[in-house]
Amino acid sequence: MYAYSDFDSQFIAQRNAQFRAQVERRIDGSLTEDEFKPLRLMNGLYLQLHAYMLRVAIPYGTLNSHQMHKLADIADKWDKGYGHFTTRQNIQYNWLELRDVPDMLDALAEVDMHAIQTSGNTIRNVTADHFAGAAADEIADPRPIAELIRQWSTDHPEFQFLPRKFKVAVSGASHDRAVLKAHDIGLQIVEQDGARGYRVIVGGGLGRTPMIGKVLYDFVASEDLLPTLEAIVSVYNLLGRRDNKYKARIKITVHENGIEDIRARVDARYKLIRPQFTGVDQQMLSRIEADFALPQFVTKSLGAYETAYTNDPVFRAWADTNLSDHRAAGYAIVSISLKAHGATPGDATSDQMRVMAELAAEFGHNELRISHEQNVILPHTHRADLPALHARLKEAGLGTANIGLISDIIACPGMDYCALATARSIPIAQEIATRFDDLKLEHDVGPLKIKISGCINACGHHHVGHIGILGLDRAGVENYQITLGGDGTEDASIGERAGPGFSAEEITPAIERLVMAYLDLRKERAETFLQTYRRLGLAPFKAALYPQAKADAA
């Protein structure tokens, strides 16, 4: 993984010293909250419902063991002993004293981490496929280009005050695990006529007006990618609306002007700025790529793995759901669920962080990833080590066998923490997961993605959930709308609203009726919820959701 240069370290140290002085001025009253707000947001610091929250960048979701240990130490020293992993591959600390934040930032710098541009109207943390560098279906590791984009975008003088926040995701695989089409820019590594380049998707986004991104270019050569990105963001910076923050994202710019007009403007801007890119970016990329060399994979006997898989049904259930194919023979990608039934999705205690760090060091070539689905990944683990690893995970409360199942729910912090939220997300996720654990149905149900947001901003990605839940305030009462048929993969689609919302007490029974209807409607066990929905459409699921309306109509 990328190692900081002397320049990187000096840059972070200077930025942290600057922010420390700003915090001191806020505490002594020299700065008002209105004056302090843009300064803190530039450094990832939010003022939430109950306390300050610091959002720490985990670029393209990649961590080493030392960094995970440091995140655990920070949770213990300055928070309440846990952290929350987010859908942007960040970690958030929710219970902070303002005076402690500069010390937290200095602690992060000790392990090459920071919180810059995790907020504000700028280019946010660049995210990536959480299986990057390990996936069997990968053309190339997308993390080197993600790191180049991170360096290019950090404190870019033209892009610090964009019309609105701007999010970039990258993937090098045929299967989209990075939700590329729901980002302002999505980049997919592709091959054309033997050459490697990028498919460039623009104008995706969720929130108040969800839209699927459109292909701007089917193929951009590697040496042309950075000037193409600069051209896109430059056009958006000039053209994007600043009169209405709800219409300020690039998805609205693309929608209002049309993809052809945007392409023409980007082409013109590209021609103007391309001579400024003299190849230095490609030299930097070559140096960065060296930091992402594959580990030295080893050969071991699979006897212990095969014995455990045959004789231990608990291990077998975990292996069937939480392991994915690896590019190297004998290896597996391990997804560690942060969704134990009844737990807060995405939360990990400091003790759990330390366990995951130790397991990565012992069994995982010292690498961890954070997924946008709020789980932790060990990308390189030999199958021979999996029985021992699984036993340690179980001891730490991290052995839940539910990746991709109904209890593997994405949920934003909701009204328990967020000042923008209009409803709670966490209790709803906990109740649904607990209910289906009680029913012992989730393995029979199979792949099913539930995603919950506590407000229209859609931080829980509900629009692209197979079942999406949006919590709203209706005259002071929490009301939960259901959308169906969303998808965040290469076949991305926005879910369709099913009908009137449900109260907090009604939403879990409603989800149960939906799932029971699916089990009756599917043609065979192998037909997933999404496949069944796409085959039959909304009508039979709507009938299950609103049985009283069906009875009244009869």
Rounded mean pLDDT is: 97
Gyration radius from CA atoms, angstroms = 23 Å
Span between termini: 63 Å
Which consecutive residue ranges, at least 5 long each, have pLDDT under 50?
none
Major beta sheet summary = 6 strands, mixed
How many DSSP helices? 19
How many individual β-strands? 21
Structural category is alpha+beta
Q: Describe the global form.
A: globular
Q: Which strand-content bin applies to the residues?
A: 15-25%
| Secondary structure: helix percent | 25-40%
Describe the structure.
- The protein has 554 residues and is α+β, with helices and mostly antiparallel strands.
- It is 40% helix and 18% strand.
- The protein contains 19 helices and 21 strands.
- It has helices spanning 6-27, 33-41, 65-78, 101-109, 143-153, 222-239, 250-257, 259-273, 280-291, 303-311, 313-322, 350-363, 386-395, 426-439, 442-445, 504-521, 529-536, 539-545, 547-553, and strands spanning 45-47, 52-56, 62-64, 82-85, 91-96, 127-128, 168-171, 185-192, 195-202, 214-221, 323-325, 331-336, 347-349, 367-370, 376-382, 410-411, 450-453, 467-474, 477-484, 496-497, 502-503.
- The strands form 4 sheets. Strands 16, 17, 18, 19, 20 and 21 form a 6-stranded mixed β-sheet that branches. Strands 1-2-5-4-13 form a 5-stranded antiparallel β-sheet.
- Strand 4 and strand 5 (91-96) form a beta hairpin.
- It is globular.
- The mean pLDDT is 97.
Task: Summarize this structure briefly.
The protein is 40% helix and 18% strand. By secondary structure, it is of the alpha+beta class.
